[in-house]
Amino acid sequence: QVQLVESGGGLVQAGGSLRLSCAASGSRFSIKTMGWYRQAPGKQREMVATITSVGATDYVDSVKGRFTVSRDNAKNTVYLQMNSLKPEDTAVYYCAARLWSDPARNYWGQGTQVTVSS
Known about the structure:
The chain is mostly beta strands. The chain has strands spanning about 5, 10-15, 20-25, 30-40, 45-50, 55-60, 65-70, 75-80, 90-100, 100-110, 110-115.
């Protein structure tokens, strides 16, 4: 089992920046991929950004050039730097992790609210 705890959400004006952090804890696990998903009211959860253990990244098109995902493997922590935020980025952001031992399963954090005002 792995536990994920997010921090860093909040309220920001359009054009502003926020940085999300997610720390993984638990015993005897090795994380393959970490990332961020988001869910806006009335919409399905979508992948925002992911990063593998060797640093390969993937982004949803709507955030390319504005968001940057990074990872500290020694600390089992993943970050999401969000710049040039738009009102449509408003959502609950969830941290996710996949283990080498169970790569088909996403472990989820509790979510953190990001609200971008216009």
